[in-house]
Design goal:
Organism: Hwangdonia seohaensis
InterPro entries: Nucleotide-diphossugar_trans, Trfase_1_rSAM/seldom-assoc
Number of helices: 8
Shape: globular
Mean pLDDT: 94
Order of helices and strands: EHHEEHEHEEHEHHH
Protein name: TIGR04282 family arsenosugar biosynthesis glycosyltransferase
Strand content: 15-25%
Radius of gyration: 17 Å
Distance between the termini: 56 Å
Helix content: 25-40%
Length: 209
Amino acid sequence: MTKALIIVFVKNIKLGKVKTRLAKTIGNQAAFEVYSELVKITEKATEHIAIDKRIYFSDAIIDSKWKGQYKAVQKGKDLGERMKNAFIKGIEDGYENIVLIGSDLPDINATYIKTGLQSLKTHDVVFGPAVDGGYYLIGMSKMHHFIFDNKPWSQSNLLEVTLNELQQNAVSFGLLEPLNDIDTFEDLQASAFYKSNIKLQHRIEQLND
């Protein structure tokens, strides 16, 4: 049986440090509360998958989240280096199929994560494309360092640039269904997560009155 691993990247939920683009419109406190909800969704999406998990926090380990799971702090000067180091550690520890997700996806669920792992049975790499041109999930069955090197992080051409490089290197890849992450107030307003969360809507309205 292939040894699989799910890696989750989480930003420590600090006022003024999370969802900064969103905070420009709705304020730091409201952005803090939105991100807190998104982290809960991510935790719920992973909790019933019977696969090893590693939770990497941006600054410090939080014991109250993902109880009983392996936890560490991300290491590296940019997102690419931090993700690369997490994959390297997983592969060094004997995992063969590894997927990594972020924690700002209102529509993430166990099915997307399992489908990503399934795709690695027939592809070297898998991506879950984000609507903004990045990706919400990346998976690998063996290490491809160049995926993480010299990339336009947080730019709208990130996935396009990465896929072109994979094709040039004859590395096969699979793509999951695109999802929208929450970076701006427009993203938030368009999401089913926000439309169905009346309590959160009222809270944001209160904070912005």
